[in-house]
Every structure is written in C-alpha cells, then in structure tokens.
Specification:
By secondary structure, this protein is mostly beta strands. It is built from four helices and 66 strands. Strands 59-66-65-62-63 form a five-stranded antiparallel sheet, with no helix packed on it. It has a four-stranded antiparallel sheet with strand order 1-58-57-56, with no helix packed on it. The protein starts with 23 loop residues before the first strand and ends with a strand.
Amino acid sequence: MAPEGISPDGYPEPRDTDQLLGDVELRGDNESTIAVNPLDPSNLACSSMFQLRVSTNGGRSFTSPEYAQVPITHSWGGDPVVSFDADGRLYWTYLAWHLGAQAYDIFLAECDPKSGGFLPGFPVNVTAQVGMPAGTAFDADKQWLAIDTWPESPFLGSLYLVWTNFSSSGSTRTFMSHSTDHGVTWSAPTLVGGASSFNWATHVTVAPDGDVYCGWFELTPRNISLQRSTDRGVTWVPTTRPFGTSGAYPGFNVVGSGDNIPGTRFWTQGACQPWILCDPLNPSTVHVVVNDDPDATGSGEPPDVYIATSVDDGRTWTQPRRVDSGPSGTLQTMPTASIDRESGAIVVVWYDNRRGLLNEDGNYLLDTQATFSLDGGLTFVPDFRINDDPFDPDRGAPCRWNCGRTLWGVWTDGPNYAIACGSTGTLYIWDGWQWGAVSTGTSETLYGVWATSTGEIWAVGDHGRILRFDGHSWQTQSSGVNDPLLAIAGRSAEDIYAAGFSGILHWDGASWNDDAAWITGLTDVTVLPDGTAWAVGIQSTVFHHDGDEWVERIGPPRLDTLTRVWASSERDVWVSGYDQYLYHWDGIEWTEHTVGESIRGIWGTSATNVYFAGRQFVARWNGTGFEVRAASATQPRQMFGSSAENVFIVGSNGRASRFDGRHWNDVPTPGVSNNATLRIGEYNGVASGIGAVAIWTGSRFGGDGNALAQQGIFDAFELGTSASEATGLAKAATTAEDAALRAGANATSLSSANPDAGQVVDPSADPIVHAASVALLELEGPNPFRWVTRVTYLLPAGERVQAAIYASDGRIVKSLAGRVSTGERETLVWDGRGSDGRTVPAGVYFLRVRGDGRASERKLTLVK
C-alpha cells in the first residue's frame, strides 16, 4: 500500500489541507486571469476570453458572465486582464477586432466589483485615444494592465497598459501608456526596449516605490528583457536580461518542427510570457518567473519553471533557480506567478504531465501544479496538484500550426455533389466518393459558398470578394465593400444574399445591391424557400426579411456575438452564440439552451429535425429535446445539407464529415495534416490574497470520453496549513550568492543590528528584546500583519535552535522550529495559527528565538 498522501503511481495526491473549494467550473474559454480586491479578499474577479465573472464569497460561487462590450465597428478579440486599484475599483482590459481595419484595438473598462457590470463612460478604446488605432500602422496584441496600489508611491492610483504592436512587415515593438484619471484618458505611448524583430508576450508591474517594470520575450535570441521606469514610463533605464547571456528558452512546441515535445500536440505559447513580481517589503527586489529549457537545444526537451531575482532594482541578477520539483523528463509549462502584497509570498502555477496519464491517442493529459515560497524565492515548498481531474489538451483545442487550410463554408444538393471553400481560395468538389480541388484564381480566404443545381457557383470572402462560376469560367463581381463577406445563401440564381461586417448585399440576377445600408456587423444569413430570410451578427443583433424589406427583430437578451442562423419558418428560428449558447425563437420569445459547447453550424429539415455542430459532437433537436452523438470533424466552421440522409460539416485542418442518415463519416479534403499543433490557451491566472487562489484553463476529463469544451476552472489553496509544514525554518544558503541574496542590499553589521544585546527589558513595553547575543534582525514581513509575517535570525553554526510564539500571558501558542543552526541568516515564518492549526485571535504575541544560552524576542501584532 502506498504511504498516506502518496498515490499508487508514486506521486503526491492533492493536499486536502490546502484544497479549499475543489474545482469550480466557470465555463467560458481560455486566456484566464484573476485579481483579488485589496480591500476585501473575498471579492475576486476572473476574466476568460470575452467574459468577466466576480465572486463576493472567496470563489465559492461567481456571478453570471458579463460580456466584453465593443462598438458596432468591432468584434471580440480576447487577451483579457483584470485588476483592482487601492480603492477597490475593478478594471478589465481586452482586445477587440476592428472589422474594417482587420486588426486589434485595446479596450479598457471600469466595472462594478460586485456584479461585473460596466460603469458609465466605459469601455474606452485606448489605442485609438493614444493615436495608434487598429489598421493605421500597427496591430496591438498581448496587452497587460498593472495598477499602482502602494500608499508610499508618488504615483498612487496610476494605471499602466503595456502591449506589443505588430507592423505590416511582421516586426514588433513594445509600447506603454498610463492613466491618472481612473482609465478615462491615456498618455501618449512611449516605446519600451526599442525596435526589435520580435518582441512579444509583455508583462508590467509596479514596485512599492512607484517604479514600473516592463518585461517581454525576445525570439532571436530567445531571452527575457526587462526595463525599469521611475517616471510613469516616460523614460526607461537600459535593458537588462534576468536570465543572462544564456537566455530563457521556453520553446513553442510546434509539432513537426523539431522543437516538439514527445507525447504532446499543444503549442506552449503561454510559456513565453515573463511574470515580473515586485517584492512588497523590499522596493529594490524584483523577481522574474518564466519557462526555460536551460540547455537551449530546441530538441524537444520538456522545459521547467525558473525564477531569477534582483535586489538592486534589476541591475544585476542571481543565477536562475528552479521552481518546480517535477521528475526528470517531465513537462512543466505555461507558468503563471503572483506575489502577495502583504506577506511577500510568491505563488506559481503551471501545467504538468508528471503523472504520465494519456488520452486515447497516446498524448499526455495535463494537471495543474502549484507551489509557493515564503522566503523571497530562495526555497519553494514541494509542489502539489490543485486540480481534481486532469484535462485533455487535445480535446476541443483548435489547430494552431501545421494545420493545412481551414474550411469555412460548405453547400450540397445531394449525396454526390458538395462544394467546400476555405483559407486558400481553393474550392473542393465532392463527387460522392472523394474531393477534388478547383482553382478560383485567388489565394484569399473564402468564407461562404452557394450554388444552383444548374452548376452556377458563388463564393464570398476577404476584402468583400465575390466570385461567380457561370459553368465555364470564374469571374470577380463587384461588391462595393472592402470588409470580409462571411456568408452567402439564396433560393435561385436571381435571389441571393451575402452577409458580412459591412452589412447585407442582394444579387438580383444582374448586380449586387446594398438594400439595407443601415445594417452592419453581420456574421450569417439564411434564406427560406418562400423568399424570406434571417441574418444575425454581433451584439445579439437579429434581422428578418419579410419578402419586402429588412426589419430588425428583438434579439436574445444575453449580449453575445451570434455566429449561425437557420430557420424553417417565421416561428422557428435557431441562432447560435459565440459562448456555448443556443437561442430559439418561436414567434413570441427567445428560449435559451446550452449543450456544453460552442455551436458553429446549424442546419435542419424541419422544426423537429435540426442539427447543431459543436467541437466534439453533433446535437440533434427532435422537437422536444437534444440527442447527442459524436462527430469527427474537429473545430467545425459550417454545416449544410440537402436531406436527413445527406449533411456535411467542414472545419479546421481541412477536415470534413458527412452524415448518411445513420453515421457520421470522415471525408477529409486533400492535403490534410495529421501532425498538427493545437492551441490550449495563452496563459492562466493566479493571485494571492487570503492564502492563494488560482484559475486555469482546460477541459475536465473524467475518463468517460465526454469531456466538456475548454473552460476556465477556479480553485483555491492556502499558503501552508502551518509555517512548520510549509517551510519551517528556511533552508540554509548553499552558495555565497544565496547568502548575499539573504543579506539583501543592506550590509548591516551584527553589532549595529543588535544594539540592545545583554539588556533585560519588559517584553510588553518594547517591540524587540535581546538577551545574550542572538541576532534577531529586522522583520522581513509586515508588522502589524494580517496573514503571514517573517523574521530572520542569526546564530553560530552548530547551536540548537528553538523558536516559539507566546501569548502576552506567557502561554505557548505555537512552536515553530527545532533544529541546528547553519551559521547563516535564516528565516522564521508565522501564519497566525496556533498549534491546533486554527487562526488565533487578533492581538499582541511574542516570537522568542533561543540558542545555546542565548535568546531574543520580537513583538508581533496580528490584526483582522
């Protein structure tokens, strides 16, 4: 039998004493971040792609999602970051895709910290306000938000946004802007780090003295760069590199590139982001946490998690230390780190495969491991698993690299004839047995295709392109718009509609006309045999053509980007939302449904036979409920059929499936890659407040093959059930560098640090009492303190050390350590708990450190 706390496979089980909540499923998508209100640690904010949720009870439950708000000119873009300021204001920044410019803008909003709702005047388009709107010269990406919450800072309350800008040539530059009026207006952007061929995955944080640190990943050579500003980002000190000349080599894990990690298919994009942590107790101390393969071979060796530390404002750096304790050859990737603003505890979480669990294809399932340090990153507790179930990174993940083309549209009129279009501008024709490729004369993406039984074909795509095949040759037709056209549908060669970001166009047999110029932001259109039509778009917009004109209808009450629409009549309309919701209109009201995954295709034969294509399955509506069955076309983009015995689904990586009335069968188009890299997310979030809390991205996987789609999952853990269990006495420094780091920037002598040696003083009257010659140095942690505090001491090597917490009446509250001194500075940690593991009442306590015939005391004040 395995020892207690060890699973039969020899790896630590989740520590029940640290598990507070278990996995709290938030649904949503990836790119998760989290923040804790400094005024109320039970108030949490979690963002995931396009959603914001808040909790007022420490994460036991969360509000329904608040969706990112964007103007009609934009659609959702992701990369969300949440943060609270010192007064408890909640801010949320995210990207939004400019439909016309085909590039990203950065938006920021102040939200209600209890509900997540947007406050008046928000969101603000930051990139447009600072004179860098999307598409003019740059494309913003990977923005990060930091707020100055330090009372002693001269810039208290300032908001900082840093981001990467991609130029049309593919080179990148890092910019920063700040706000001094709660995000309403923003400064002109300043260039950080100069021009580079590739700066990306930026991070920004603020030190207690108001200094701003900005870091980013460099591709060539692979390394982490960091700069510091003392004037809100107006000027910057020269670049330093925390990982030295050898660099940080997180890798990308692109399958088939020579950089891939065996047993994995996912892209480790999130591993490239550096996490900069400013010590709340020492303004000159800064840490950087990142993924790194130390030998930098790029040969597929799994990376580990490392930390580098500077005690002189980033000028010089320690040798990087390994954070995780994963066995050799196992994967620790996509780390996220945070530092507690009161205790200085450093918390790190990451994805991990050390248990060796595999999915049905033989690829690794992933867990989320965590660890923390209570001594400034010198040592970390043995890392532990915080998730209950592993997740399958292959399940439901979109293809990222080596994907081949994406098929966006499909049309069919029988089992022996179908047409698919996609990202290369090529059409694929199904003859009942296989697909054949047909050149259209363009390489631009085609999003939709529609045809007649007589052989005429229309296809629409990027830059308002409309192509027509008249049975003999391809012709480009004038659309009058430059924005992408995303869908096309019709009932005859003289009655066709094309929908896109610029609105709706109609083909009357002779020309394309904009008969409803007031309509914009459309994503799909469907046409009924009677000539009526339905169209949907962003911000839950729904339009109906009644045979004479387009009329806006009441859309679903949930703010959503509507992706697909299908209707059998005016009283039977199905619409899919971006975020895993389905909406049905019965002529009177909308009914909301969810089948657990985002729906990207809808098609049916009648009100009692409607199909829905999700990431992992096809759901069928039979008039009263949903029937679910597996389908093999991953990441579907469109569904279309001609009968209940002939339905096609097309999607990413050139995949296609056909339903013959009984089974879904793979019918992939030519050139499909079976060696593709998948994308599971770009970062996960961790923040520390009461102990620590974490959020990560991934599918739950219970072993039954019915894992949900990617989602955010929340959990919480404490920073050790007791100081002795977590770290007790910090381990002795093993190198001169460690000793120097422990001493910090101040080279204080023992005599000056202990002026009262030999005196006898009433402990209740003085904060520090020295008897004999124990050097009890200045506090490393806060005092008064709320959660955790730290005290360092120094005794000659070989002396027995005893340490205990006493109440003011002399009663022993907790014994902290019993060991032999190393002769180096060592750290004691107390988390406000007694020997029974329970938090003691607020009040005055005394820490007494004893050596061989020597003792010192320190008064500690615990507040609530």
